Amino acid sequence: MSELALFVGQLFNGASVASIFLLAALGLALSFGLMRVINMAHGEMLMMGGYVAYLTLKFTPPAYGILIAIPIAFVVSGIAGAILEVLLVHRLASRPLDTLLATWGVSLCLQQGARSIFGPIGDEVTAPKWLGGAFQVTHGALNGLSLPYARMFIIGFTVVVVAALGLLLVRTRIGLYVRAVTQDRDTAEAMGINIRKIDLLIFSLGTGLAGVAGVVLAMLEPVTPSVGQAYIVPAFLVVILGGLGSLIGTTIASVMVGLISALTQIVWTVSLSKVFLLLFVVAFIQLRPRGVISVRSRALEET
Amino acid sequence: MQLRAERTFYLIGFVLLAVAPWLVSPYNLSLLGRFLAYAIVALGLVLVWGEAGILSLGQGLFFGLGGYVLAMYLKLVNLAPGDLPDFMQWSGISHLPAWWAIFRNPVIATLGVAAVPAAVAAAFAWLVFHRRVGTVYFALITQAMVLAFVTLLSSEQGYTGGFNGLTDFHTLYGLSLDSQSVQNGLYWATVAALAASFIGLKWLTGSHFGKLLRALSDSENRVRFLGYDSMPYKTIAFVIGAALAGIGGAFFTLQAGVISPAGIGVVSSIEMVVWVAVGGRRSLAGAIVGTLVVNFAQEMVSNAFPNVWPFAIGLMFILVVTLLPSGLGGLFRPEALAALRARLRRLSGAAGLIPMADDPGRDMRGVK
Questions:
Q1: Which domain holds residue B137?
Q2: Which of A145, A158, A298, B60 has its CA 20 to 30 A from that of B87?
Q3: What ipTM does the predicted assembly reach?
């Protein structure tokens, strides 16, 4: 395999990993922009989506089971998120650091719950046949390059989801409300927007998306009780790099994180590439402490 | 008068800890010694999190640095010059790297236990704080930091011992670690270090510096408008916390006889925060008690029912953070009890969508 093919292959892998980071980070970034809280149990919403995929594929025809699992996972994780928001996150909203800690407690319970039900060993979800193969390049400069269809599907699917979310935020009345509350909570409330409903809606939309990310992830690797943990820390870094509640910022940040991890792994080990990613984030906030896209505001205290 | 009662109470506590070798079995003593080493870490967290309001989810990094620095000395001390520690030979390393060799010197190693974590913490905190990064971001970055550290430790088997970490120590400063009297001595040294940290932090939190840290956690901008540069204060508090974590890590390593990535990762680092949350984030004595209570509970529950412990600690965390943010230490403070009663009333009144408008914590709606 040529150097170029290896490079392009890693770019492609990076893009597919970035897609999962993006799906996982969107919910975190949106609710962080809205409520200034970080949900540490977000990774477990992803894990739930993975198990939904596993269970759904047991009872549905393998050819399109994954397509059925996606909406189910969205609903299941979304409802779980709504319960979490009402019972815990909302009550602690004025104490962001405590929210972080309490949701971590939830995350531990959910992980152990999954371990008790499904066991600690990973459960395989086989991708349908039409996603099984890979696109092979057999001649030319890219000889030896192989692009798995499953990863292509993930990238395409993420593009569709992000586009839909963008339309929701920019073109609909609900999106208008969400942007208004993100910009200025008090004024939005004074204008008659029900900020409780908006908070709840965005939080569960975000966890629902994490559930979808879990289904997609299940096509790449086995679902384990701690699968969320592996993706949640990079997702946090995406939120930090992306800036408060910005869809475009989060997208750019996911691509950066995905590509950095994939490309540094050509020359270094996985662990060195993790260290590099962290150093990159610390260096990046020297230049742009508010992330790629920072919302301009006259407010004194920003998070 | 009340201050004297408090002091008597602390004195009794430390005297009880000091006479423990005659009261408890060697097995329980070794557990207690390890947990007291943890308590030193917890004291640092009271300063960093309780006082300065900086949540660190990465104390395991500093704990680990202190532990590994001492462990490197312990691995090298009995080797002839030119020889390599056992695990390096297995991994086919031919030369001792320079960053290992300097810790052959007992003085450097002993100072390094606190100095290495402090230096790492200083560089990191300065880089992050001088750009005024918010506390939530800071917490997330510390977590990424400890994750990177643990991955690095596990993968660089030849230099760090990998998953197994560093173990199989025999002598410290020429004393045999296998003898019970040396183990007792280590225990007393741990108690002494804990007492010294306790007294030092009592003084520090009562000083002008401590008052400024509390002011910073309440409203950093107001402190800045009064003419203080907040950055050095936060950095110093974080560095002290890191140094204490390193010292705790070193005492832990000596008494456990091993330091490995397993005890310092993301989950372990958050567990350190749990000890302090349960004990009381603003109470030094509470943090020590919380550390002992949580760890002995873990020892009992996870031995008998390993599957129950994660539920227990998760629920404990949720309940303490939501209902009793000032922890067990708060049970001795009337205003914290009143807040608990109010929370319980609200919970029982309507398990629905009533906003906690009268929450004593900072209200983000006013901040925006």
A1: 2-307
A2: B60
A3: 0.87
